[in-house]
Design goal:
The structure holds 2 protein chains of 2 kinds. By secondary structure, chain A is an all-beta fold. Chain A has no helices and 11 strands. Helix content of chain B is 0%, strand content 54%. By secondary structure, chain B is mainly beta. In chain B, the strands form 3 sheets. In chain B, strands 2, 4, 5, 9, 12 and 13 form a 6-stranded mixed β-sheet that branches. A 5-stranded antiparallel β-sheet of chain B has the order 1-3-8-7-6, with no helix packed on it. Classes of the chains: A mainly beta, B mainly beta. Chains A and B meet through β4, β5 and β9 of A and β5 of B.
């Protein structure tokens, strides 16, 4: 079984809808991250969490919110989706024992019409 | 200016060729450096860390030049399976040391042809 899983893997939605992307990990890592990837822009950090009570904004947090429900779960919400949030979204985990190495989930492809 | 810059390519090379990618970073206080590999529509995976003294892993050699703020990746004897996007990754140094965050370049695409 994969160590970092994301659901859904693909989602098509309409402008204005609320969307939640979920991430779960079995690696026992404290740190979790949400990124989006757009062609030509690379991966950009949306939010990150270093433990259950810690939430931090990343480079591009506007229009997104997160919840760290447990050490193993970190969800990303788009309160009112807009077309320029169409992207590939990745969750990642790390902890002090992994150094700076991050382990990524398989990604969620989100299309906002 | 982007914090981490790479030539997006694509680099098209024949099997067996040697190919090199460079990457520059803007933050002189950057702490750690990596190359990640990303296959089409898949998640990034760590290829190798980059150390100041340079390091090698099989056909792959990574170099770091802190004075010039660039990182390189050399692939020898290219295989078809090396076709992927290679992401240059840097960790910034925060006020209390390593922030745990990664800054990604946009990636360089390599296509190895038979």
């Amino acid at each position: 079984d994969a160590d970092v899983t994301q659901t859904p893997r693909n989602r098509i939605t309409k402008t204005g809808k609320r969307i939640m992307l979920e991430c779960s990990q079995t690696k026992g890592h404290d740190r979790m991250y949400w990124y989006r990837q757009d062609p030509g822009l690379g991966l950009r950090l949306i939010y990150y969490s270093f433990d259950v009570k810690d939430i931090n904004k990343g480079e591009i947090s506007d229009g997104y919110s997160v919840s760290r429900q447990a050490q193993a779960k970190f969800s990303l919400s788009l309160e009112s989706a807009i077309p320029n949030q169409t992207a590939l979204y990745f969750c990642a985990t790390s902890d002090l024992s992994s150094g700076d190495t991050q382990y990524f989930g398989p990604g969620t492809r989100l299309t906002v019409l | 200016r982007k914090e981490v810059e790479q030539d997006p390519g694509p680099f098209n090379v024949p099997e067996g060729a040697t190919v090199a990618f460079n990457c520059t970073y803007s933050n002189s206080a950057s702490q750690s450096f990596f190359w990640y590999r990303q296959d089409c529509r898949k998640e990034p995976k760590l290829l190798m860390s980059v150390y100041s003294s340079g390091n090698e892993d099989g056909r792959f050699t990574a170099q770091l030049n802190r004075a010039s703020q660039y990182i390189s990746l050399l692939i020898r004897d290219s295989k078809l399976s090396d076709s992927a996007t290679y992401l240059c990754v840097v960790t910034p140094r925060g006020g209390s040391g390593n922030t745990g965050k990664l800054i990604f370049g946009q990636g360089t695409t390599l296509q190895v042809k038979p």
